[in-house]
């Protein structure tokens, strides 16, 4: 059975929509529209939509001899009449001129959107059944036609026979019987057939520039909600309208602005890489901007209040595991990262000067990502700090110094691996304490103390420290050095959480002075 007959039986029509043709050719809808505009696919317009003839599609799919559907029906006067006839299965017949039977190789010259001229020669099929096509792009129309004639003459060993120049359609029309069939124009782009999640996994596992495995995993986490919405949609089918709706939706989920921006930027990066790799026809992010959050946050909860820290430290008195107390005390007065805390060594602690030096941190090396929505396995190891800026010596409060000295006394009566470990917070084997182990300790403490609503984490002490430094009027360079963040935006937008009450309290002195000036004016 010919391709034409198969298509007619499959769709019970002789004119097909752009979407169906795109599916049959395995290309995006935009590529189909380009083929129509260059004349490679013959189409008519009905109610503003292009309908492609099955014979034209069949020829592009490799049918050697397009079927002759007979004489042309009387021209329909309106698109409504044509639409009605299609509804009633009275299909419009588009006659196609018979091919030159004694011609082996055929070719055509067509105009591309960039003004270049594409020479295309059909050479039948390869041994594997795929179409054999030869193409060449030239800047000049005459040179393109000469190249086609010369190449066909060479291949056929006789006078060349080629299809006439095919120009883009400028208005809806039904092709007359005398019009020759136009051969496919140019190379049909080969785009990726992968879904967004499949493509994103390939990009992330293929590494992105100098990004570390931890950064790559952060990209994965930022794509979690995105994949839930468009993960199963093919890359070539995703457009700017879908993405705009997606991020408008995510703006309700991601109240935290930095999470929303991370998802937007990571998704945009995936599509930009797809365009640069020529895996999709165009970048849908060209005119999109990250939407603002539509939820109102009533209260800031990132930084602990002084009262909350008092509760945490006082509740620990009744708790039996002594390792958390020095952890909390150090984090409160230094704001160091949990990875830096777990990598601290006793040799860097100076109780006389009340200081502790940070020279290293616990880092993670993530394995290959198997799924965007599934956590990735990793291993922990000691590495240098996040940047050279992170090597620093910090002051400790008297409470933190005393807590560390008491912890040292406890370790002196502990098993040899912990007693002799160089790490301040070691595991039973003497190595640094794992992240999972620390989280388990905190969960047990929270449950026993009954303070689940406080969302206790070590990292929140970092936010608290930064906020306190801002309220204390410390210069930004000083805060940068203490916090080990050389970007002002990170300090101001992420770590600083000034509540309304804190702002009012900090401005007390200003209003006292203002009142004094007003009093002098009134008097």
From TrEMBL:
GO terms for biological process: DNA integration; DNA recombination. One of its GO terms (molecular function) is DNA binding. Residues 299-508 form the Tyr recombinase domain. Gene3D superfamilies: 1.10.150.130, Intergrase catalytic core. SUPFAM superfamilies: DNA breaking-rejoining enzymes. Transmembrane segments: none annotated. Signal peptide: none annotated. Pfam families: Phage_integrase (PF00589). The keyword DNA repair does not apply. Keywords: DNA recombination, DNA-binding. InterPro entries: DNA_brk_join_enz, Integrase-like_cat_sf, Integrase_catalytic, Integrase_recombinase_N, Tyrosine_recombinase_XerCD. Belongs to the 'phage' integrase family. This is Tyrosine-type recombinase/integrase.
């Amino acid at each position: 059975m010919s391709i034409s007959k198969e298509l007619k039986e499959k769709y019970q029509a002789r004119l097909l929509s752009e979407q169906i043709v795109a599916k049959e050719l395995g290309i995006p809808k935009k590529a189909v529209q380009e083929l129509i505009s260059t004349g490679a696919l013959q189409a008519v317009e009905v109610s503003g939509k292009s309908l492609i003839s099955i014979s034209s599609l069949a020829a592009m799919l490799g049918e050697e001899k397009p079927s002759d559907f007979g004489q042309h029906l009387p021209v329909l006067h309106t698109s409504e009449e044509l639409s009605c006839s299609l509804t009633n299965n009275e299909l419009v017949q588009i006659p196609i001129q018979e091919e030159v039977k004694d011609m082996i190789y055929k070719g055509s010259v067509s105009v591309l959107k960039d003004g270049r001229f594409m020479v295309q020669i059909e050479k039948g099929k390869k041994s594997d059944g795929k179409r054999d096509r030869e193409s060449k792009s030239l800047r000049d129309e005459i040179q393109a036609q000469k190249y086609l004639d010369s190449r066909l003459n060479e291949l056929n060993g006789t006078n060349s026979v080629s299809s006439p120049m095919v120009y883009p359609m400028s208005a809806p029309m039904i092709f007359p019987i005398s019009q020759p069939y136009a051969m496919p124009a140019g190379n049909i782009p080969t785009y990726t057939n992968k879904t967004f999640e499949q493509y994103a996994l390939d990009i992330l596992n293929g590494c992105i520039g100098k990004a570390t495995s931890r950064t790559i995993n952060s990209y994965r986490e930022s794509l979690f909600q995105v994949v839930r919405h468009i993960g199963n949609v093919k890359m070539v089918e995703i457009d700017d309208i879908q993405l705009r709706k997606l991020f408008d939706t995510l703006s309700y989920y991601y109240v935290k602005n930095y999470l929303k921006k991370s998802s937007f930027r990571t998704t945009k990066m995936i599509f930009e890489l797809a365009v640069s790799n020529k895996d999709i026809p165009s970048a849908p992010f060209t005119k999109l901007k990250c939407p603002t959050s539509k939820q109102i946050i009533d209260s800031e909860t990132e930084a602990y209040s002084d009262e909350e820290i008092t509760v945490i430290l006082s509740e620990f008195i009744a708790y039996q595991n002594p390792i958390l107390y020095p952890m909390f005390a150090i984090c409160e007065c230094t704001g160091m990262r949990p990875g830096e805390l777990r990598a601290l060594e006793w040799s860097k602690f100076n109780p006389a000067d009340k200081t502790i030096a940070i020279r290293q941190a616990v880092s993670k090396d993530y394995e290959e990502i198997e799924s965007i929505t599934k956590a990735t396995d990793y291993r922990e190891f000691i590495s240098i700090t996040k940047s050279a800026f992170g090597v620093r010596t910090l002051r400790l409060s008297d409470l933190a110094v005393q807590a560390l000295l008491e912890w040292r006394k406890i370790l002196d009566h502990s098993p040899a691996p912990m007693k002799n470990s160089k790490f301040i917070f070691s595991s039973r084997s003497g190595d640094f304490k794992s992240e999972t182990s620390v989280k388990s300790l905190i969960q047990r403490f929270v449950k026993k103390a009954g303070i689940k609503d406080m969302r206790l984490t070590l990292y929140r002490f970092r936010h608290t420290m930064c906020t306190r430094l801002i309220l204390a009027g410390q210069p930004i360079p000083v805060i940068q050095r203490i916090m080990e963040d050389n970007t002002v935006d990170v300090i101001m937008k992420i770590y600083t959480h000034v509540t309304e009450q804190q702002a009012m309290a900090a401005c007390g002195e200003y209003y006292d002075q203002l009142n004094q000036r007003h009093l002098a004016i009134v008097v």
